[in-house]
Structure formats: structure tokens, C-alpha cells
Design brief:
Chain lengths: 270, 231
């Protein structure tokens, strides 16, 4: 099932265009579960921002779809308003910190107006009013990209993957982390955050991408990242990529891998 | 325009390993026959679970251990194609559980090299007190397995058969505060408990305990048959 796709208009400055799409996983469809991924994008004038988030989805996280939606929107907002008085690298940690506080405040606000009900607490396996516990209901990962004329910055909490493609079609990981096993992931809802930040010069970068693990975990070829780099590099240019193209590219992963599958592409206009 | 992004796609593998005691004592009281029956009767349920949770490709293999260890399959087999050939007890065979645990280390390293998939599930079934005549003790072997990232992440479950089963050793193997070994007192217990631990292990590994997949209650023993006098 195709749930959403978007392409930011070509008018953005900084030479970048965003294309994003999300496809509900086959296993979620079978269980009548919603798509628990989210993505967001912003045109902030001198560049673009693109974010994906992956709600944990398990019964222990009954509000993870909302957690992911909040994370995508709030991180897109914060990355779009970096403190221009500082260099991008210096401003990124403060933006990340601001984002985490904003997400926690949004979760607290939602909990205040809609406390966890008995069914949700039963799904979570126990009852506790500790902040860490109730916040885990909204557990999600989040990956963000900010691309301007000068810099490409990335932020990551949890699994999924980020990468960029250079002019020679080579893949470069962004915010790389030690691989986790199975369903383990760092979480935005965790008391101790494992936050990864990276900024690289934009010169020579032709594409940046972020995906939820619905895409990366479905890939069987160990060299799939290099394949993605080559395929993005071979595109005729940002204007040649339509949302329906991306939806079609994601559909096999969502269908075969079974998980919700979401990706944002930040493409250099050529 | 490319027609795809990335390479070939597939389901996430979930490796399921049976770790089965075929020591000499398993020949007593019909335990080895009951074990064969229990696994035979568990496979249809696991295949059904695989159909219900198509995000996981369950790949199965089995290792038996007595004085020595032996893999029954050279390579992991998709559960849909996995066929159980009954195993026999090894006359005078010891219970070298530590050596069997060490034999799991290489497969865990192979999983790490592939680097994708759900945490593996390892189901141990044993009826006695582990020996360590040639290999290490259980307590010495388990840290070696847990030193491997995929070994540490594995979901380890265990069923003890009869009164002589060393539940402490099985707990050492499980090495998880929230999981305890089950003790089967008779053949029907064994079927119920092997079915439960194998399904529960797969569900824990894949988090397939969503709204349609609530786990069933842990089976309890229905009374002693395999007591000390029969082992």
C-alpha cells in the first residue's frame, strides 16, 4: 500500500531538491497496523532539510507512530533553524539538544492530555508512572539531513541508515554506528541518548539519503550501499526523480521485508 | 531511469538452533522417543508462525551432543523444508554441554559476518547433569559464547527432562534474568514445553508479539513420570 510521497519543489535554494516516500510494510498491513514510520522536509531558504523516523512498533511502544511523527516534524524544524551565527558543526549539537527537549515536551504534553489507558499499559507489559517508562510508549528512531550550498549535516538516533554519494558515484556513510543485532536499536525515548552527528563539505556531494531499517534490513546484497550510490549517481538529475519513482523503489522492500519502509533523497539539481 | 534502488531484497533471517542432549541417559524411560516426537510435533506450529510472520525467514538446524557434538544439517534449512529425522541416544554417552556451547561460537561468528537478521534462537533440551571430561564446564563455556555479539544477542531457551535435569546449568545457559528453564516431567509436558519455548523464542527474537500474536501462557508440569528412579 502506498501511503505517502512528496517532492519538494525545485525552487529551493542551495541546489538541492528533496524527494521522500513511505510505504506500509506487508506485515503491518496483515496485522492492520498503521504505518509507524514518518518523514518530513523543509525548505529553509538557503537549503533543505529531510528527516525520517521509525516508530519502534512493538506492543511495548503503543504510541510509537505518534512518537515518530513528532520526531520527524520537530527535528525538521530544528535543523531548519540552526543558529546562523555559528558554524554548522558548532550549531548542530545545540540544535540536537533543542530537538530532544522539544520532543520530550511534546510527548509530555500528549501524555498530559491523553494518559496511557489500561489497554496500552497492558500492551506495555507493566504499569509504572516513571517518566522513562511512559515515554517509552512513544519510542522511535530518527535520522535527519540538512543540506546547504556549503555543508551537509546529519543527525541520527537509532537504526536506519544515512549516506551520501560523491561525484565519482562512491558511497560515504554518515553518522555510521556499530551494527546492532536483530530488533535492538537506540531510541529517542531512552533515558541515555546515543546521538550521532556529522557534518561534511557539500562540495562534490551529488546526493544524500536516509532510510528506515525497513529498507536497509531487506537488502540481501552486502554491497547494497554501493549499489544505491551508483543508482543515485546515474539518475539524470533531481528533476528526473518523481515521488512515484521512489515509491516504486521502496515497495519491494516493504513487501518482502514486511516492515514499513521510508526514504528521503536529497538530490543535487544538475 | 533506474527501476530499483539497492539490490535484491529478502526477508530477515531468523536462525533457530536446536541443541539436543543425546547422552546415554536419554535412552531411559522413552525420553529420546519423546524428544523426537516433541520436535516433530513442534515443526508444524513453527511453519505456521513463519507464515503468519512473513517478515522473518526461519532457518533451522540442530546439533546433538553427548560425549561429542554433531551438527545434523550442514547448512541452515528454511523451516518450511526442515524435516526431522529421529535421533537416537548414544550408549554411555556423556553430557558435554560445555563443548556443545563452544561449538555454537563459529556459527555466531558467521552470522556476524553476514550482519543482518533477527537475533538467533537457541533451544537446549537436556535430561542430566553436564559432564566436562574433555570440554569446559557450562559456566566456563557460556562466557565464550556471550563474548560473541550474536551469541550475546541470541535468545536462549531451555527445557530439562525429568528430575535429574540440572536446572542450574540450564539457567547458566539461558543467562537472562527474565527467562527460566522449564522442567518436563513426562512426554506430554515435553511436547508442550518444547512447543512453548520454540515459539516464544522466535517471538522474542522478532518482537512478533503484536496485537495478533500475544504469547500463550507458559506450560506447567502435569506431574512426575521421569523421576530419579527412571533415569
Amino acid at each position: 500500500m502506498i501511503t505517502d510521497a512528496y517532492r519538494l519543489a525545485d525552487r529551493t535554494d542551495g541546489g538541492w531538491t528533496v524527494v521522500g516516500a513511505s510505504v506500509t510494510g506487508a506485515d503491518h498491513r496483515r496485522q492492520s497496523l498503521p504505518n509507524q514510520d514518518a518523514y518530513a522536509y523543509r525548505d529553509y531558504g538557503s537549503g533543505v532539510v529531510a528527516v525520517v523516523a521509525d516508530g519502534h512498533g512493538a506492543a511495548q511502544h503503543p504510541r510509537s507512530a505518534l512518537g515518530a511523527r513528532l520526531a520527524a516534524d520537530l527535528l525538521a524544524d530544528r535543523l531548519g533553524t540552526l543558529d546562523s551565527a555559528e558554524s554548522e558543526q558548532d550549531a548542530l549539537p545545540a540544535a540536537a539538544d533543542s530537538f530532544v527537549r522539544a520532543w520530550r515536551a511534546a510527548v509530555a504534553s500528549d501524555l498530559a492530555s491523553h494518559p496511557l489507558d489500561r489497554l496500552e499499559l497492558a500492551e506495555m507489559g507493566r504499569d509504572s508512572d516513571s517518566l522513562d517508562f511512559v515515554r517509552s510508549a512513544y519510542g522511535t528512531t530518527v535520522l535527519g539531513i540538512r543540506a546547504s550550498a556549503k555543508w551537509v549535516s546529519a543527525i541520527a538516533i537509532g537504526d536506519g541508515e544515512l549516506g551520501c554519494v560523491d561525484a565519482a558515484a562512491r558511497h560515504h556513510p554518515l553518522c555510521a554506528a556499530q551494527a546492532r543485532i536483530g530488533v535492538e536499536t537506540d531510541s529517542l525515548a531512552a533515558p541515555e541518548l546515543s546521538l550521532r552527528l556529522q557534518t561534511v563539505p557539500a562540495a562534490g556531494v551529488v546526493a544524500v539519503w536516509a532510510c528506515t531499517d525497513g529498507f536497509s534490513e531487506a537488502q540481501r546484497d552486502p554491497e547494497w550501499r554501493a549499489l544505491v550510490a551508483g543508482q543515485l549517481h546515474a539518475l539524470p538529475g533531481a528533476s528526473g526523480v518523481l515521488p512515484q519513482d521512489l515509491r516504486g523503489w521502496l515497495a519491494p522492500s516493504a513487501e518482502t521485508g514486511g516492515d514499513d519502509t521510508t526514504m528521503v533523497l536529497v538530490l543535487r539539481r544538475r | 531511469m533506474s527501476d530499483r534502488l539497492g539490490g535484491a531484497v529478502g526477508r530477515r533471517p531468523l536462525h533457530f538452533i536446536w541443541l539436543l542432549d543425546v547422552s546415554g541417559s536419554m535412552a531411559v524411560g522413552g525420553k529420546i522417543q519423546a524428544l523426537n516426537t516433541a520436535i516433530e510435533e513442534t515443526l508444524p506450529q513453527l511453519r505456521e508462525d513463519a507464515r503468519d510472520h512473513p517478515q522473518a525467514e526461519i532457518l533451522m538446524r540442530a546439533m546433538t551432543f553427548a560425549t561429542t557434538t554433531s551438527w545434523l544439517q550442514r547448512r541452515p534449512v528454511p523451516v518450511e523444508q526442515f524435516r526431522w529425522d529421529p535421533v537416537g541416544a548414544v550408549p554411555q554417552g556423556l553430557t558435554e554441554l560445555g563443548a556443545a556451547i563452544l561449538a555454537l561460537v563459529d556459527p555466531m561468528r558467521e552470522l556476524a559476518e553476514v550482519g543482518r537478521g533477527f537475533a538467533p534462537v537457541i533451544v537446549l533440551v537436556s535430561d542430566g547433569k553436564p559432564t566436562h571430561t574433555a570440554g569446559p564446564t557450562t559456566a566456563d563455556a557460556i562466557p565464550v559464547l556471550l563474548a560473541e555479539p550474536w551469541g550475546r544477542a541470541s535468545v536462549r531457551m531451555a527445557v530439562g527432562i525429568g528430575e535429574d535435569a540440572d536446572m542450574e546449568a540450564l539457567s547458566t545457559f539461558i543467562a537472562h534474568p527474565d527467562r527460566t528453564p522449564l522442567r518436563a516431567a513426562n512426554p506430554s509436558d515435553l511436547v508442550a514445553m518444547i512447543q512453548w519455548v520454540s515459539r516464544q523464542g522466535s517471538r522474542v527474537a522478532s518482537l512478533a508479539t503484536g496485537r495478533d500474536g500475544a504469547s500463550v501462557g507458559m506450560p506447567v508440569s502435569s506431574g512426575p513420570v521421569w523421576d530419579a528412579s527412571t533415569t
